[in-house]
Design goal:
Strand content: 15-25%
Helix content: 25-40%
Distance between the termini: 29 Å
Radius of gyration: 20 Å
Structural class: alpha/beta
Shape: globular
Number of strands: 14
Amino acid sequence: MKDLVFKIQSEKEFIDTTLQVFKHQFENNTVYRSFCDLLYIHPSDIKNIESIPFLPIEFFKSKKVISSTDSVVETFSSSGTTGTIPSKHHITDLSWYETSYLKGFKHFYGAIEEYTVLALLPNYLERKGSSLVYMVNDLIHRSKQPESGFYLNNLEELAHKLKTLNKKKRKVLLIGVSFALLDLIEKYSFDLSNTIIMETGGMKGKRKELIRNELHQLLCKGFQVSSIHSEYGMTELLSQGYSKGNGIFNCPPWMKIVTRDTEDPLTIQKKGKTGGLNIIDLANYNSCSFIATQDLGKVYSDNSFEVIGRFDNSDIRGCNLMVL
């Protein structure tokens, strides 16, 4: 199945594979099966991907969402905020994740070996179980560039390295959390026209939250680049969407975003309407590939998407009330 998922090249192949994955998870994932049973939905009822039930993402906080009898080899967990329950994604086969992020990166940016990868992810490095750190650490090693690495508090060394590599016109990816990137441009001046600056979101309580446009304007000015790239990922996903500017994301061929009606969570909307983001991530073969997130956004006619905000607890309707 892995070869099938990561070789998808057409809409028909995506749909056919998605229907196979749904049947597999209905039969092998007790949490997802119970959720489908509550909705009186059976694989025989599913003729298209729009009618597949999407599991509310909150179940990753309270249940072991798994579609395999194999042993768990890694558990990724979300950071959450103080007093909240973290999400946990139990992984039985890390090669699904590794194949997904490597092929996903190559799909959008080319071979990782062409890049020097500099990571500014302080809050993620301070805890265990981060899927983002796992991915970036592997990208650093696979880049085979001696300058690649993580930077925690040594911003001076990072600034020097960025300037040196940019002057040499080397392909550089600086990936970091928003607050750390802002800290960097407040202390140092840059002109990094040859560097990709990629933010992974989140002030994590370190700074006042900014809307995306405001954040990207500050970062563009501070790094002297024309656009800020973004990564859209989460603990519950084994795939990432990427934006090369303006906050418009695209998915790799085995991942798709649709929106649900905010008042009727079982209804999938037409493209162009703002709604809750539902994600099909076929790399989640051994957990659940059909997830209703707490993000609000919009999907465009070319299947690109934009994240507009998040539901607050009072906005979440319907599916959340179905407690298994």
